[in-house]
Amino acid sequence: MIYGLVASALVALGLYGLVTQPALLRKVLAFNLLGGGVFLLFGVVAARGGDPVPQALVITGIVVAFAATALALVLVLRLFQITGAATIAEDETRR
Amino acid sequence: MEATPGGFLLVLILVAPVTGLLIGFAQGGRAAERIALWAAPLGVTMAMVLLAGVLHAQAPIVAFVGGWAPPLGLALRADGLAAAMLMTTAVIIAAITLFARADYTTLPGAPEARAPLAFWCFLLALWAALNAAFLGGDLFNLFVALEMLTFGALALACLDGRATQFKAELRYLLFALIGSVFYLLGTALLYGAYGTLDILLLSRTARSDAPTIVAASLMTVGLLGKMALFPLHLWLPAAHAGAPPAASALLSGLVVKASYVLLLRLWFWVMPAALLLAVAPILALLGAAAILFGSLVALRQARLKLLVAYSTVAQIGYLFLMFPLVAGSAAEVAERAWTGGALQAISHAFAKAAMFLAAGVIARGMGHDRIAGLHGAARVAPLSVLAFGLAGLSLMGIPPSGGFTAKWLLLQSALYAGQWWWALVIVAGGLLTGGYVFRVLSAAMRAPSPDFMPAAPVDARQERVALGLAIISVVLGLLPLAAFGLVLIGR
Hints:
- Chain A is mainly α.
- Chain A contains four helices and no strands.
- Chain A has one domain: Helix Hairpins (Orthogonal Bundle).
- Chain A is 85% helix and 0% strand.
- Chain B is mostly helical.
- The longest helix of chain B is centred in the C-terminal third of the chain and has 36 residues.
- The two termini of chain B are 14 Å apart.
- The model of chain B has no long low-confidence stretch (mean pLDDT 90).
């Protein structure tokens, strides 16, 4: 039960961060928080039934999230090297 | 469901591009290019054999990975829809391989460069991911396929390395990541409720209870975000228009269709009919809004590539009109609507790939893609302008194009089902599409000013590839309707 609540809190925090934080690095961190919440939820499912499959799913999920984070960070880094700023917010307000 | 003979073909279709990718990555850009060139005809052949197999058996071809049956193992299933989408994918990837040789070839004697290596490797990766997304029979497997697809598509779209491109693609990545987390959250809930993620096993047990509804909404919203259905389309125009032409064609033509097929599997296979009946009108309403909004905004675009991208926003909308027409209708009407929806996905894939390739050639030849300044484009790149026009016919739904058959089937089923308001949207969308295609053509056909000089020579091979895809999108409409019975197999 407590894990389920923590998972929901992580998902909510992560989603909030993803939407509101303008800095890309913070968005990437928020995405990882969100992902952590989802993986914990898989853990909750696994703990309830004593079933090993969700754990296998979580491992795959973590690998995917890791790859996504790495890719996002490389893009953010290149963007920073080119423009000197790591945000996509300013051209959203210009539109 | 038992494994069927011919299942090894499904495994082969998945493994072949991955093997090519690994060897190409180890051997460098020149080898990767050669592998992609060989993989293209091989892929088309494999897709044809699979298609013939499904048609012959009149039943899906099923393979269990490693011989383990679900719920413990993973199933690969090729039903009619999957076979048709695999065929579409193979042909378009082959065309793009031919098109991209002009841009990403490594000349003999030249040193290996990074862009060709990245392009050919990610092209193969994208292909593998698309095949996995169409064949997967397990909701978690499909999640992994969609993620692979996003990463491959993103890398291809960023190849030019411009700052505006990075910004557009980063926004795409964020939308895609939020979408996949929502989807994953949904699968966690479904696994918690049913103890399996196999699509067929779920379809037998799924109930209309609270966890299922929450899971279905999360997964649907996630997939809609990835497909850029209005109002979640914000990322698409910049991301698709900013990419290099070959990548734009892949993103707009094929990548969004993978999420679409997954959405179909979720709603028409997994979810109980009562739930589908409640959701279908909402999806179609969003689709109708996408058609009208996307077409209107496309009409007002000043740049050619952005116009084509907004046209994708609109054409995606058509795919959703099928939901209420299939869900609540008599079998014959439902079959018509289903065929129309699938054919729309296929003909739009060909037409939009042709359009983006043609737009890329035109933009290079003219040195810009401002529509108002396209005078003389028909002289610089005549075949590309022709390809743009032919693809436009299919998007508008003018006979005898594939787009016409698709929209005609949807229109008919809307009338038969007594939901005439969708028919109005289809007609209005067709007229608006005619408007923006005509705007481009009339500018391109106009004579240039006397001192006009093309900015760069146009590659005739690239023009022919774009034209070939456009012709396929039209010829689809000449096939007898019975040929599309394929997409009904295993429904």
